[in-house]
């Protein structure tokens, strides 16, 4: 179709690839809203659930840790579970990004969006 135009044919191909990548990025962003990760602390006494974007969605606290004297310990366990969930969310988002860049034939470790 654009063979006689030399470099313009390559430019059209690059524009099409850029549009495809933009669509895939948008889909991945939507997917990150539905992927759930769980952070845990206190040997499972506190569990925090978050999306792969790091948005906290749930908190499960074992009732056995509710003792008025241990308020600071409970607070620390809750924070630890939330931080663990956020860390796992970041890791999962990076994994999903790596899958996408690999599928597109981009070099490993290339950070998108630019």
Describe this structure in words.
This protein is of the alpha+beta class and 114 residues long. 54% of the residues lie in helices and 16% in strands. It contains 2 helices and 3 strands; from the N terminus they run αβββα. The chain has helices spanning 7-34, 71-103, and strands spanning 36-41, 46-51, 56-61. Strands 1-2-3 form a 3-stranded antiparallel sheet. β2 and β3 (56-61) form a beta hairpin. α1 (7-34) runs antiparallel to α2. 10% of the residues are buried.
Radius of gyration: 22 Å
Question: Can you count the helices?
Answer: 2
The proportion of strand residues reads 15-25%
The largest pleated sheet is described as: 3 strands, antiparallel
Helix amount: 40-55%
Question: How far is the N terminus from the C terminus?
Answer: 31 Å
Q: In which order are the strands of the major sheet placed?
A: 1-2-3
What is the 3D form?
A: rod-shaped
Helices and strands, in order, run as: HEEEH
Mean pLDDT level? 84
**Unreliable sequence segments:** none
Number of strands: 3
Class inferred from helices and paired strands: alpha+beta
């Amino acid at each position: 179709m654009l063979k006689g135009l030399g470099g313009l044919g390559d430019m059209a191909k690059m524009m099409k690839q850029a549009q495809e990548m933009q669509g895939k990025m948008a889909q991945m962003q939507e997917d990150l809203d539905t992927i759930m990760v769980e952070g845990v602390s206190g040997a499972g006494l506190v569990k925090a659930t978050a999306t792969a974007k790091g948005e906290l969605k749930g908190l499960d606290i074992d009732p056995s840790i509710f003792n008025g004297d241990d308020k600071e310990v409970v607070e620390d366990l809750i924070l630890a579970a939330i931080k663990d969930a956020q860390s796992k969310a970041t890791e999962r988002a990076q994994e999903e990004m790596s899958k996408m860049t690999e599928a597109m034939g981009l070099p490993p470790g290339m950070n998108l969006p630019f």
